Amino acid sequence: QQQVKQSPQSLIVQKGGISIINCAYENTAFDYFPWYQQFPGKGPALLIAIRPDVSEKKEGRFTISFNKSAKQFSLHIMDSQPGDSATYFCAASRSNFGNEKLTFGTGTRLTIIP
Amino acid sequence: NAGVMQNPRHLVRRRGQEARLRCSPMKGHSHVYWYRQLPEEGLKFMVYLQKENIIDESGMPKERFSAEFPKEGPSILRIQQVVRGDSAAYFCASSPLAVKLDTIYFGEGSWLTVV
Predict the structure, then answer these.
(1) What is the pLDDT, as a whole number, of residue B1?
(2) What is the pLDDT of residues B42-60, one digit of tens each?
(3) How far apart are the CA of B18 and the nearest CA of chain A, in angstroms?
(4) 3-state class of A54 per DSSP?
(5) Which end of chain A has a smaller Cβ tally under 10 Å, C or N?
């Protein structure tokens, strides 16, 4: 019940296209859903996050869509650029004060080609 | 994430040796999390510590692994008698006293290779 399932495992998108990565969770107690971006040899960096009281959040070219009833959320990267090539992880957490450990998906390796 | 300092960045140990990984949280942060990332996998929670207290160690293997976060100094993840399966990247994250999830910052990781 603690799993977060992520797909696809890898994704190749042309420059300027839309990259879409999907995640599904099981634990209905999760109430915080971030996406992290990780470049090779680096730690994960928070990209964008959403809480279940909204169905969509947009920050620049990055949008999270959230479907509470389906227990799914996705990351959309508009106008994808070569600099977006990285591994993306979705995650989920229960925002109880005192322990905000994250449950991560298995990652999507995104490659943007010219 | 530049503020969370981890060392060493790369560590090679022979089977049976001990590995010690250090994490200095961002200034003003008193919560530390350790995660492990196996090759081609996501990060797995290991342990959550506050100063001098282990809050949640539900992700720690029962044997050979221990963690501490003393009153002074960095947090340390200790792996005794390492085995090849311990080869992974170990990430530390920190957050401030008044925890908000979007203020959790990760370090750049320590890559452990067991030969």
Answers:
(1) 46
(2) 899 999 999 999 999 999 9
(3) 23
(4) coil
(5) C
Contact A97 B99 (CB under 8 A): yes
Give every CB contact of residue A4 below 8 A, 6+ residues apart in sequence: A23, A24, A25, A90, A91, A92, A103, A104, A105
Closest to A101 in 3D by CA, of B108, B66, B60: B60
pLDDT by residue (tens digit) across A23-55?
999 999 898 999 999 999 899 999 999 988 899
Residue in A95, A98, A104 nearest the CB of B42: A104
Single-letter amino acid, residue A97 = F
Q: Inter-chain contact A101–B106, Cβ cutoff 8 Å?
A: no
How many C-beta neighbours within 10 Å does residue B88 have?
Answer: 21
Residues in A touching B43 (Cβ below 8 Å):
44, 89, 102, 104
User: Which of A45-49, A98-102, B87-91 has the weakest average pLDDT?
Assistant: A98-102
A107 CB neighbours in chain B (<8 A) are 40-42
B76 burial level (CB within 10 Å; 0-12, 13-18, 19+): middle
Counting Cβ atoms within 10 Å, is residue B41 exposed (0-12), middle (13-18) or buried (19+)?
middle
